[in-house]
Each structure stands twice: as C-alpha cells, then as structure tokens.
Specification:
Largest sheet: 2 strands, antiparallel
Number of domains: 2
Number of strands: 2
Radius of gyration: 26 Å
Helix content: 55-70%
Strand order of the largest sheet: 1-2
Strand content: under 5%
Order of helices and strands: HHHHHHHHEEH
Number of helices: 9
Length: about 210
C-alpha cells in the first residue's frame, strides 16, 4: 500500500515538472480564437469596413500574459507595473491583426514578445522622466543640501545622491545625457544642461555646403 502511494506521489511530481510556464493559457484554444477573429478581420477589410474588436477571451489572454510577465524577476521591482501591463495589452490590441496563423501556431509566444518590448519601452520612458527630475534637482540644489540630507537619512555614502534619489544608475545617466555635437571640426562641450535634455538633442548643425 505504501509503495502504491509512493509511486502515485512520484507521478504527481513528474506531472508538475512537465507543466509549461504558459499553462494558465490553453495555446491551442488561444490559436483557434485568433484564427476565427482573423477571418472576421479579413472579411471586414474586403468590405472596406473597420476591423472588428477582439473578443473578450483574446483580451483576457493578453491581460494574463502581460500580468504574468510583469511579475517575472527582471520586471517585478519596477514601481510602474500597472503602466507596463497597460502598454503591453494596448500593443497587443494594436498589432493583433498582424498575427498570421499560416506562419505561426503559437500566439502565446508571439504576443509575449510584443508585451516584452512594450515593457522595455515603458521602462526607458519612465527612466527618461526620472532623468529630467534628476537634472532639475541637481541644478536647483544650489546650496548642496540634498546630498547631506540623504547621507543623514540613510547613513550612506552615495557616489551620486541626486541619481540615487531617483533610482538611476550611471548607465542610465550616460544613456540620457545630451551627446556632444560637432560644428566645423570642433566639439561642443557637453554641459548636461536641462534644456538640452528636454529638447531631445535634436538640434544638429547642418553640414557645410
């Protein structure tokens, strides 16, 4: 009797190990739903009519994928998870009609990739806003009160207390820092001015004719 229970437990453990990460969505059912919806899209396009909205089931799949992905280790610590999930779902809806059942039978993987890159874009957008706040604080803190306050608060020796206040790394700062521009063979010094950050560093000199 004990041996039978032991074997049964081993079988259950093996089944759990074989359960895929996307078990919360039936990929075959998801695929069938996308096929049916794509037929409606093609019919609407042939009649020059607006695309039909996605079904509730498809929308639920998008939301489940985005929510699960947001709680992965590489995304879970970001404070703007709701915005990330919203962007992911929005992008899925925008590009849902691009899914081609003849080229892929794995909508789970297809839309996971869309959501993944939507997350990355949101992270960069939020960090850019943090960088603007960081530069604003750095330039307004004429007396240098912020570094002393942070050291007193946490008893820590920050290399860059302004950046630490907004959760920015040195790589983030280098990425968003306005680049140097060339004018007639001479380099313009990078002052890190806030106006340059807000303008997106788009004012490049036109080449000499």
């Amino acid at each position: 009797m004990s041996e039978d229970l032991h074997d049964e437990n081993d079988e259950q453990i093996e089944k759990k190990k074989k359960v895929p990460d996307n078990h919360y969505i039936d990929n075959n059912e998801f695929f069938d739903a996308m096929v049916e919806w794509k037929k409606l899209v093609i019919e609407a396009e042939s009649c020059d009519e607006p695309k039909p909205p996605i079904t509730n089931y498809i929308g639920e799949c998008f939301l489940k994928i985005a929510t699960r992905l947001a709680f992965r280790a590489n995304f879970i610590n970001y404070p703007y998870q709701d915005e990330m999930i919203g962007d992911g779902v929005e992008n899925c809806i925008m590009y849902a009609s691009n899914f081609d059942p003849e080229k892929s039978k794995n909508p789970f993987s297809y839309f996971t990739q869309i959501i993944y890159y939507a997350f990355l874009r949101r992270i960069q957008k939020e960090k850019k806003q943090m960088y603007i706040k960081y530069k604003t604080l750095e330039q307004l803190d004429v007396k240098g009160d912020v570094p002393g306050y942070l050291k007193w608060k946490d008893d820590a020796d920050y290399k860059n207390p302004y950046a630490e206040a907004f959760g920015l790394s040195e790589n983030d700062i280098d990425k968003f820092k306005p680049k140097t521009t060339k004018k007639r063979g001479r380099k313009k010094k990078d002052t890190g001015n806030l106006d340059d950050v807000l303008s997106g560093d788009k004012n490049e000199d036109s080449p000499d004719k």
